[in-house]
Amino acid sequence: MDVLDFEKGGGLLPAIVQDWETREVLMLAYMNAEAYRRTVETGRAWFYSRSRDAFWMKGESSGHVQEVREIRIDCDADAVVLLVHQIGGAACHTGHRSCFFRRVEGERWVTEGEPLFDPKEVYRK
Q1: Which of 49, 95, 105, 110 could join 117 via S-S bond, C-beta 3.0 to 4.6 A?
Q2: Residue of 80, 79, 101 whose CA lies nearest to 90
């Protein structure tokens, strides 16, 4: 972990999450040194929420956990890629498989695919 440069981003690194088998981009989140340590120790994806100012393990509320199969870093050591096995099929809190379910078509956004779960049912508080 000594090689990772958390200082460039004010203590946070962008973490791109991809499906282990298909390499589909599932989501982007942020990690600080503690979230990275927890990820390495547990084999599950941990992140740092900038809006909540708190750690969170992917799937702790939904059960849609990410089992980490491989971790890669970029050449500047200031970004990571987590290759994961996505439990439950969906990585996005909206119920979609990927957080990147919209694409630009001309001047409009097009939604691809249908949600795999209803967020209102999964995230009852």
Answers
A1: 95
A2: 101
